[in-house]
Specification:
about 400 residues, alpha/beta, TIM Barrel, three-stranded antiparallel sheet, Aldolase_TIM, metal ion binding, rSAM, S-adenosyl-L-methionine
């Protein structure tokens, strides 16, 4: 196995000519440290154990399932999770877990406990969806997985989007990530849909940063949006703009990140880590850039040969995967990086225990086709057909991840 050192790729950080605004309310948006962090982690573990006791009731089953839950978390993150953030009274350690304390967090834990203790019914399995709310996008991104659906007539009205939310909330969905196309081209519809969804599901928006102005960020927050994930694929503006085929999206994205933080939302960067990005030694400089922006999470997405990348030689080689795995473990657990954002790298657990997509979540693309995830075009049914049916019931179909298999 090839060894990897972070210092080998720690090129000098080429600072982008950006102005970082530091007007974020630290009392409502901060990394939790010291004694508070220890107390919060202990409280979360006790809460999980309490939910296990009242849900499973049998002592042996409680202990066995509780340990299985902790083991799944360890395998997902490599080692114990260290970093946690307090945003407007709730604590976040993962983009795909509702903030704690909340009813949504408790429901997620209950579902996971039952999933490990006994088979769930078909209507209890989904806890999370990606919902593409538009086919419109001003970008022409190199890696776009929605490429074949873009810039055609919209599939859903605002009313139909709310109906889709209702259908999946009846299935127990606790978190919804709204994407597109570029979701903020329909910002007014999106705000209304979030207002409709917020009481039963945590809402996030996945955006290029287009139209993520200070005003719109504040409106999204007021509507009930909990988090924003902004795609920035390079810390060098020209390279990001070239990747997105848009002349000035880098600065719009940076301004959007700052607006999200100021509005008081969980804020993350998402980056497509191509071979050229890794070979160029850009991981650590990008991480420095993310720290400078003050985001909570950085999500590393591997390029997949779907959409605009279909039939192209984009899949990472083993040496690239090894670099990402080492980076993921070191920056999340080494004290040197304690003040940096949490890094999420799905490839780490996918290659060891399978993928959460399909078994716990689905992706509804902008044409209404329902897939295991944005990167696995499995299309098991179309939600537009469900909307037109009398009962509006989701077909009982398993969306298996064809690349990694599903986590039980």
């Amino acid at each position: 196995m090839q060894t990897f050192s972070l210092t080998a790729v720690h090129h000098e950080y080429k600072k982008a000519p950006i102005v970082i605004k530091k007007d974020v309310d630290a009392s409502n948006n901060a990394k939790v440290k010291g004694m508070e962090r220890s107390i919060i982690w202990l409280a979360i573990k006790l809460r999980i154990f309490f939910i296990a006791c009242i849900t499973l009731k049998k002592p042996v089953l409680i202990w066995r399932t509780y340990k299985a839950m902790l083991e799944l978390r360890r395998k997902t993150w490599g080692i114990a999770i260290n970093k946690i953030y307090r945003v407007h009274g709730r604590y976040y350690f993962n983009l795909y877990t509702p903030g704690w304390p909340s009813a949504a967090y408790d429901s997620l834990i209950k579902n996971e406990l039952l999933r490990h203790a006994k088979p769930l019914s078909a209507t209890d399995k989904l806890t999370f969806i990606f919902l593409a709310v538009t086919r419109k996008c001003p970008m022409r991104c190199e890696h776009c997985f929605e490429w074949d659906n873009l810039n055609k007539k919209e599939t859903f009205t605002q009313h139909e989007l709310k109906e889709i939310v209702d259908i999946y909330q009846q299935q127990g969905v606790l978190q919804i990530h709204f994407s597109g196309g570029e979701p903020l081209v329909r910002v007014h519809d999106l705000i209304e849909v979030i207002k409709h969804a917020k009481n039963k599901s945590e809402c996030y928006v996945v955006t290029s940063g287009f139209n993520l102005t200070a005003t719109n960020a504040a409106l999204l927050k007021e509507a009930g949006c909990k988090g924003i994930i902004v795609s920035i694929d390079h810390y060098i503006p020209e390279l990001h703009n070239g990747f997105r085929n848009h002349a000035d999206i880098f600065f719009k994205a940076v301004e959007g990140v700052q607006a999200s933080l100021k509005a008081g939302m969980v804020t993350a960067l998402s980056v497509c880590v191509t071979k050229a990005f890794i070979n160029g030694g850009h991981l650590i400089p990008y991480f420095e850039f993310a720290k400078t922006l003050g985001v909570h999470f950085v999500q590393l997405l591997e390029p997949k040969n779907v959409g605009h990348y279909a039939d192209k030689d984009v899949l990472l080689e083993e040496e690239h995967v090894q670099q990402l795995e080492t980076f993921f473990k070191i920056v999340n657990h080494d004290a040197t990086y304690k003040d940096y954002p949490t890094v999420m790298y799905h490839g780490y657990h996918q290659r060891r225990i399978g993928c959460y997509s399909g078994s716990r979540s689905v992706y509804i693309d902008s044409a209404g086709d329902v897939h295991a995830c944005p990167f696995c075009h499995t299309a098991s049914y179309n939600i537009a057909t469900v909307l037109k049916s009398a009962k509006k019931e989701i077909p009982v179909k398993e969306n298996l991840c064809p690349r990694y298999g599903n986590i039980v």
